[in-house]
Amino acid sequence: MMKVVLRIFSCCTPTSPARKHQHLHSLRQSETVGDAQQTPNLPSALVSPSTVRRRPSSPASHSGPTHPPLPLRNKSLSDPTELTSEAGAPSTSYSNEPFAKTEVPASTLPALPTLSHLVQRQIIEHLPHRYRHQPGYELSLVCKRWRDILRTDTYDLSVTPEGLLLLERYPNVRHLQLRGWLSDEQLAQLPRDLTSLDLSACDGFSIKGLTCLLELPLQKLDLCGDRAASESGPPSCLDPFGRKGTGWGRMLAQHPTLTELSLRACEIGDDDAMALAGNPRLRALDLGHNQVSLEGVRELAANRTLQKLGLAANRVDAQGVELLAANATLTALDLGSNHVDRPGVKALMSNTTLVTLCLPDNGLDDWSASRLAQMETLLHLDVSHNQLSDTAAFYFAQNLSISELDLSGNTGIRWKGITLLCKKIRLYMLSLGELDIGDEEAKSLATCETLRDLRLMRTNITTSGLAALIKSPSIETLDLSDNTGLRGKDAEVLAQSPTLNRLILKNCWIGPSVPTLAKSHTLRHLDVRGCFLDQRASVALTQSGIPSILRSPSGL
């Protein structure tokens, strides 16, 4: 890879043989002393701290040339964990893909002719898209033309409101996430060809400012009200009644192109819900944590174009569940934290189109589990934080269609139920958070040949249990968040796994042992937020070969 980069510099920036020899020598020297990389220096208003990968400068002297700033594209917004939303929130840090070592003397590299602009573009386009903006493949350092090509190649971006004026440098951005205080005037400055907009990390705007969104060709919009409008902000930034979401649904129901809309926790009532139900273009609608009752549910259930509907933490009772169960176009339904009792579960049994069903925190018992297990179309089922026991696990083990199952918080499920699940059901993802997972349970989980994603948050798993799990030939993702009993020896055990590529250790006290994980040859994603990293651990992570690392600011 190093040879390719050196030749590119030769192609695009012809120099004298003496200067070329000096340039190549300095590049090789910088690689030898630690593969140090200049930190990108984009305007702070444009790029969030999570947008770039950083590597600390080597303590050795570096006499190589100074390169121009490196603009990098943020990853796709489908992975929201890689963006910093608020001050004090965990930041994202990535390590570099190191250059391959080369022993070719500089004098043996032939001088190459200047390449045409067409050939230069073809060289960039030949590289896989995920590598074009990645440190270690410093394509944008070659010359201004290559930097401009890469900016044109950027489609997803995360910016602060102050960075809106700089978006003209990225003419093809279609998916945008904004963070921070956003005024109505700044909202009016959005690019006119956006198709996806995420304002869930913004506050300050009002319903008046949102009207400008009706003129954009948006297909996806996220206004998650957890931060969509600050309750402590000036009254002028809210609607005239001081309520953060009043009227948003009625206004956005008029949007001519929206197909996906999230209005979680935006104080949406029945009037807004009924207006949105009349929009024939919406395919996915999330109204979780609002105040939608039977009147609004009735209109939503009558909609025949919605495929995904979220009504978690609203006022949906058994009658509302019956209305929704009769809908033959819904494939995904979230009714968590409502009043889905036995009549509601019985009504859901008659539905033959649902693929994803979420019913956490509804007081469900083993009888309800026996009925849900008879739904042959379900692939993804969330029944976390209910009142289920090993008997419920037995019923679910008879269902051969479920591939993702969340049983977190059902403390009545123990070794017997887990063993039944692992023997009889073909699971791809299993969540057992907040359960008592001991050595026997871990050994049973390790025998599940189809299991790829295992989530054991707050389970107090032991070292011997981890040793059993890493013997699994299939587990690729492991979530051990909030297992505060994990220590250094546990990190050593996890680093030996031959299959793990995603490891989540949020709020685990293993900070000093993180350098052990950095030696893993399989990890591609590591989340150590809240792990109290010391300086040595932070440096080890930065210099590791793990492409995606999430960690808290200041090593917390």
TrEMBL record:
Protein's UniProt keywords contain Repeat: yes
Domain of life of the organism encoding this protein: Bacteria
Residue spans of biased composition, Polar residues class: 27-42, 75-96
Location of region: Disordered: 15-98
UniProt keyword annotation of Nucleotide-binding present: no
Keyword entries, A-Z: Repeat
Protein name: Internalin-A
Source organism: Pandoraea iniqua
